[in-house]
Amino acid sequence: MVCRLNLVAVAPDLFEQIVEKRLRLIDVAEGVLSAKTLDEINQPGFRNRVRVELTSAFNSALNFNWIGEVIITELVIQ
User: Fold this and answer.
1) What is the pTM of this model?
2) What gap in Å lies between CA 35 and CA 29, rounded to an integer?
3) Cα 28 → chain centroid
4) Domain locations in the chain as residue ranges
């Protein structure tokens, strides 16, 4: 699976803090996405559910609600 994400911070000044934690967020995203089964991936609404799940997981990993939205710009499943 290949996935490209854009994160929307709740405030513009949080960008640098989020970038500093980039590797942690990549690890979180890989954990969330790799846990998905093919049946889950093929269900209608999968992208929206993953978007919400990633937002929650990122905010939990950051210990703050810094991420307001996750935008999936590319999702390739092989």
Assistant:
1) 0.89
2) 10
3) 8
4) 2-76
